[in-house]
């Protein structure tokens, strides 16, 4: 398996791989070995019959012809049974050499096809054992039958057998690397798809959690004042309409930015301008005012130098403040929150403090705070499907994607809850 930091070869995805399972690789060795071996055996018998009676023996001729045909026929089954096939072909080749009495016989073409195919298809042990046993038996039987072995021919054939195995090993190694590269590319593609899903879920959660929580509060106010103060109830309904329209426009913009791959920079290149600007610190006052309209007193302190941060960092700051204040509105029994954005030596720090206890009488840091801070039930005061702790997880992921550090939990004295995100200083093109 390639190292995670390595990229697969470009050819792994650009060029089609030569498949050993295709019909060409099955029938080409069969046809070639049959066309070479069988006519060669017949021609050799005919040529020798013209000058001597050496091949006049019909038994010898029949054996040579059967052995010449056996190799190509065995190759038909090489795909399903590469090990047994290489053993059969080696045995047939050994018999063919002995029947020809060791003289310059036509090459047994089926042998290299069988050996290389067996090694490539994983039957390496079959190939090595078959060649070793076949070679020893052939030499021993030839000596016993007084076959006039030619030393140069013996050495040449030995080297050829080693070469066949080496070719098979080379193809097998290359094939394995191709498969690993393809698997790596597929895993990388799946990882990118999963990351894209997480990006969309994180962005939509940040937009919808805040807007729907605000709508929920405004709807509660409207229902409460519907009979006693209908004019204020009407104002609450107007606010709901404005909030829902703004949320819809922002959702459309988020989907457009994500579709164009501009989530990290907030810049769209090939599509029309977003319906609303990508959130940054310039829209922070608007966010704070919307939270204050729900009855939460928010004290904010923003270092002016933070406005010079890159777009990706400003987007992260905005979303972290948005999600943290949404959690305060939905889950805290307090009526106050503190927001601070400062410039540090390493970059930027975003701090959101909720000094109040959790709603429903739970202890600070228990259900309703931190990871369990978002129970997502109706009692929490917000829509049930927004909870489940994904907000804090999304803030952590957003911070870590930029190379920063994130923490969320109860404060030291046990009263209140604090979110801290340390974001690095990125270059303007990051």
From TrEMBL:
Keyword Membrane listed: yes
GO molecular function: ATP binding; phosphorelay sensor kinase activity; protein dimerization activity
Gene Ontology cellular component list: membrane
Reaction equations catalysed: ATP + protein L-histidine = ADP + protein N-phospho-L-histidine
Enzyme Commission number(s) of this protein: 2.7.13.3
Family matches, as InterPro entries: HATPase_C_sf, HATPase_dom, Sensor_HK_TwoCompSys, Sig_transdc_His_kin_sub3_dim/P
UniProt keyword terms in alphabetical order: ATP-binding, Kinase, Membrane, Nucleotide-binding, Phosphoprotein, Transferase, Transmembrane, Transmembrane helix, Two-component regulatory system
Transmembrane segments: 26-47, 59-78, 125-145, 151-168
Pfam family, one: HATPase_c
Region (Disordered): 351-390
Sequence ranges assigned to domain Signal transduction histidine kinase subgroup 3 dimerisation and phosphoacceptor in this UniProt record: 196-261
All residue ranges annotated as the Histidine kinase/HSP90-like ATPase domain in the record: 314-425
Keyword Transmembrane helix carried by entry: yes
Segments of skewed composition (Gly residues): 358-380
Protein name stated in the entry: histidine kinase
């Amino acid at each position: 398996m390639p190292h995670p930091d390595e990229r697969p070869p470009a050819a792994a995805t650009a060029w089609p791989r030569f498949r050993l399972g295709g019909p060409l690789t099955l029938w080409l060795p069969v046809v070639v070995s049959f066309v070479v071996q069988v006519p060669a055996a017949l021609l050799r018998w005919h040529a020798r019959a013209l000058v001597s009676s050496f091949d006049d023996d019909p038994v010898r001729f029949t054996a040579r012809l059967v052995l010449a045909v056996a190799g190509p026929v065995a190759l038909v089954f090489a795909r399903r049974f590469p090990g047994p096939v290489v053993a059969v072909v080696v045995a047939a080749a050994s018999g063919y050499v002995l029947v020809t009495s060791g003289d310059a016989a036509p090459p047994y073409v089926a042998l290299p096809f069988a050996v290389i195919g067996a090694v490539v298809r994983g039957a390496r042990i079959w190939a090595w054992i078959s060649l070793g046993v076949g070679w020893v038996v052939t030499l021993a039987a030839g000596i016993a039958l007084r076959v006039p072995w030619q030393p140069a021919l013996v050495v040449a054939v030995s080297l050829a057998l080693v070469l066949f195995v080496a070719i098979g090993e080379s193809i097998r190694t290359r094939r394995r690397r191709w498969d690993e590269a393809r698997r790596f590319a597929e895993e990388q593609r799946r990882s990118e798809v999963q990351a894209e899903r997480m990006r969309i879920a994180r962005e939509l959660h940040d937009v919808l959690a805040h807007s729907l929580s605000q709508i929920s509060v405004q709807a509660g106010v409207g229902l409460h004042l519907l009979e006693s103060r209908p004019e204020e109830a009407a104002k609450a309904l107007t606010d709901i309409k404005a909030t829902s329209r703004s949320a819809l426009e922002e959702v459309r913009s988020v989907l457009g930015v994500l579709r164009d791959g501009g989530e990290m920079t907030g810049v769209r290149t090939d599509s029309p301008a977003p319906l609303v600007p990508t959130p940054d610190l310039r829209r922070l006052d608007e966010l704070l005012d919307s939270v204050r309209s729900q009855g939460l007193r928010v004290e904010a302190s923003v270092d002016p130098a933070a406005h010079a941060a890159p777009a990706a960092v400003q987007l992260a700051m905005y979303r972290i403040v948005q999600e943290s204040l949404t959690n305060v509105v939905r889950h805290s029994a307090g009526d106050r929150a503190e927001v601070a954005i400062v410039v540090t030596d390493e970059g930027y720090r975003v701090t959101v403090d909720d000094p109040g206890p959790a709603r429903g009488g739970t202890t600070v840091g228990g259900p309703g705070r931190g990871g369990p801070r978002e129970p997502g039930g109706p009692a929490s005061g917000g829509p049930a499907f927004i909870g489940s702790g994904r907000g804090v997880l999304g803030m952590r992921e957003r911070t870590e994607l930029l190379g920063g550090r994130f923490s969320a939990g109860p404060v030291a004295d046990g009263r209140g809850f604090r979110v801290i995100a340390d974001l690095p200083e990125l270059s303007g093109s990051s």
